[in-house]
């Protein structure tokens, strides 16, 4: 069965392209186009009053969708922003500094660039004291972080490593030591949100969770999300006027905050991503497609792709995680990774490379014909 018809606009816009980078920039389904159009039409029709619809209808609907997807069922713990870097800055400003002085941050060598770069720069400027643990072996990472977390104010770890596709188990060890007065535990779930069913669950009682729409939510940029546990950071230092959106009657000079996740809000934003996200979620519901079903499909595609590479030069690479694992991509480590990525791109085949790791990502818009074509292209590599 093929689901290409749900992506006819994206696929039709570049019919010769083989896009196997769904883990990076997921192609947009047709439903997201309808969302973008509705956003424009609402802006034209409602003008200033569009915010009544955005904040009164769409925002809470999106919160409910995310809370169900995370397995927390607490929509009031969800807040949105333009990107996860924006949310990371708000967390840095709000987190408790128990020892005074710079924030003490504990993280791993496997974090994505938005966190890695910002933490490195803050460490350079003296705004944080940074400790970085090796991300491998991933099966002991949570316990190793928990052992070191007593000296940290904020701990950040990916639930699924973007470079290797490896899952980090036993995050309960970190959730058990997270406290409102520190340490805070922040889970980067960008590669688990809508790729793994209910990735947060009970962890959400004490852990923050960051993700967004750019990848498996199929909604594009502009919709990052954060689950914020109750009682953590009631008065964030970086704050926009939407953080008191529910009570704009406060006397001048008073800085009020919403009691729920809205306390982490910024200011005026582009709501189009909310429309795209909700239209995409409605499309999935109408098609009967859950995260579990999509993951099962992609897992089968990954396994068949890995099998199909056996007679190609890519077989010489180290496959960093099992094709049946939860990652929606294959990660192949080899000194020629960048060379292979460039050669494939020259043939209009989109993969991506991280250092010496070639990543091949699959999604709902792929089928066996795509796997056959990729294997044929891979066979021509040197």
Question: What class, by secondary structure content?
Answer: alpha/beta
Number of separate structural domains: 2
Averaged pLDDT, please?
96
Q: Number of helix segments?
A: 11
Keywords: Aminotransferase, Transferase
Organism: Sphingomonas glaciei
Protein name: Class V aminotransferase
InterPro entries: PyrdxlP-dep_Trfase, PyrdxlP-dep_Trfase_major, PyrdxlP-dep_Trfase_small
Give your account of this protein's structure:
Keywords: Aminotransferase, Transferase. This is Class V aminotransferase. It is a single chain. The model has no long low-confidence stretch (mean pLDDT 96). Helix content is 35%, strand content 14%. The longest helix has 21 residues. With 382 residues, the protein is of the alpha/beta class. The chain has 2 domains: 116 residues, Aspartate Aminotransferase, domain 1, CATH 3.90.1150; 253 residues, Type I PLP-dependent aspartate aminotransferase-like (Major domain) (Aspartate Aminotransferase, domain 2), CATH 3.40.640.10. The chain has 11 helices and 13 strands. Helix 9 runs parallel beside helix 11.
């Amino acid at each position: 069965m093929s689901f290409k018809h749900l992506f006819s606009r994206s696929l039709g816009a570049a019919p010769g392209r083989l896009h196997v980078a769904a883990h990076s920039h997921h192609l947009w389904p047709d439903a997201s186009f309808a969302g973008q159009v509705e956003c424009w039409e609402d802006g034209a029709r409602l003008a200033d009053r569009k915010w009544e619809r955005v904040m009164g209808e769409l925002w809470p609907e999106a919160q409910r969708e995310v809370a169900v997807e995370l397995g927390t069922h607490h929509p009031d713990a969800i807040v949105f922003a333009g990107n996860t870097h924006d949310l990371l800055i708000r967390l840095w400003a709000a987190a408790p500094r128990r020892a005074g002085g710079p924030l003490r941050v504990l993280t791993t060598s496997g974090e994505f660039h938005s966190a890695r770069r910002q933490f490195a720069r803050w460490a350079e400027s003296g705004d944080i004291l940074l400790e970085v643990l090796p991300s491998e072996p991933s099966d002991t990472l949570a316990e190793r972080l928990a052992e070191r977390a007593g000296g940290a104010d904020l701990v950040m770890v990916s639930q699924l490593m973007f470079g290797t596709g490896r899952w980090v188990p036993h995050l309960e060890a970190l959730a058990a030591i997270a406290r409102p007065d520190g340490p805070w535990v922040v889970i980067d779930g960008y590669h688990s949100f809508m790729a793994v069913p209910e990735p947060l669950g009970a962890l959400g009682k004490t852990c923050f969770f960051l993700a967004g729409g750019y990848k498996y939510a199929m909604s594009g940029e502009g919709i990052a999300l954060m689950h914020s546990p109750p009682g953590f950071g009631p008065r964030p230092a970086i704050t926009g006027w939407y953080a008191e959106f529910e009570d704009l009657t406060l006397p001048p000079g008073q800085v009020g905050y919403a009691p729920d996740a809205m306390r982490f809000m910024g200011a005026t934003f582009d709501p189009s991503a909310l429309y795209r996200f909700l239209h995409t979620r409605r499309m999935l519901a109408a098609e009967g497609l859950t995260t579990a079903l999509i993951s099962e499909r992609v897992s089968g595609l990954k396994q068949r792709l890995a099998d199909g590479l056996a007679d190609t030069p890519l077989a010489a690479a180290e496959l960093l995680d099992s094709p049946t694992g939860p990652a929606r991509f294959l990660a192949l480590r080899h000194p020629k990774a960048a060379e292979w990525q460039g050669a494939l791109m020259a043939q209009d085949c989109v993969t991506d490379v991280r250092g010496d790791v070639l990543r091949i990502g699959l999604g709902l818009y792929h089928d066996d014909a795509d796997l056959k074509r990729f294997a044929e292209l891979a066979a021509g590599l040197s």
